[in-house]
Amino acid sequence: MSDINAILEPGMLVRHPEHADWGVGQVQSNIGGKITVNFREEGKVVIDGSRILLVLVYEE
What we know:
Elements: E1 13-15, E2 25-31, E3 34-39, E4 43-48, E5 55-56
Antiparallel strand pairs: 1-2, 1-5, 2-3, 3-4
């Protein structure tokens, strides 16, 4: 399994695998495995990339 979190960059769109109700989020930063994402329905969330594997959204 590849670690998609390692390639995430600001502007990329993602979903949280355990919180579909948060909607699509835009990556704000990815520093040292801490990924800050601004989700439409939840707001800004800092995610520990070593614990949660985000799902990349290819088309919105």
